[in-house]
Each structure stands twice: as structure tokens, then as C-alpha cells.
Amino acid sequence: MQGEGGSVRVTASLGVVQYDGREALDELVTRADQALYRAKGEGRNRVASERREPPPQAIKRAVGD
Questions:
Q1: Do residues 48 and 31 lie in contact, with contact meaning Cβ atoms separated by under 8 Å?
Q2: φ and ψ at 25, to 5 degrees?
Q3: At 15, phi and psi to the nearest 5?
Q4: How far apart are CA 7 and CA 14, in angstroms?
Q5: For residue 17, what are the β-bridge partners?
Q6: In whole angstroms, what is the distance from residue 53 CA to residue 18 CA?
Q7: 3-class secondary structure, 10
Q8: Burial class (CB in 10 A: 0-12, 13-18, 19+), 17
Q9: What is the pLDDT along the chain (65 residues), one digit of tens a residue?
Q10: Residue 14 β-bridge partners
Q11: DSSP line for 15-56
């Protein structure tokens, strides 16, 4: 990326979570923040996602039981 003083190097770390439709916004943001800090801890230009087990009813729907 070119700036007025020359090149500027840009890096990005992201924390990604999935909204389950039931939780409060502050809980969602807290989980995303935790994933972000994990990504930052792993180095630059990283994406970290949350590792959560799906609820049992979601597994049943997925397999058709």
C-alpha cells in the first residue's frame, strides 16, 4: 500500500465466531474477541475461529434423526 511517505505494510488478524440465534450481543462479541486474541497470539495475518461443539439438537437435524 502506498502512502505519502512511501510504502505502508498492512497486516490483519481476525477472530471469527458463529451467532447461534440465542445469545446476547455482548456474549457474541466476547467470544469473537477471544478468537481475535488467539489469532494475534499465533502471529500476523491469521484468522482464528471458535471451536465449539454444536448442541445435540443441531447434530440430530444434520444427520436426519
A1: no
A2: -60, -40
A3: -115, 125
A4: 23
A5: none
A6: 12
A7: coil
A8: buried
A9: 677 778 888 899 999 998 888 889 999 999 999 999 999 999 889 999 887 666 666 555 656 65
A10: 47
A11: EE----SSS-HHHHHHHHHHHHHHHHHT-SS-EEE---PPPH
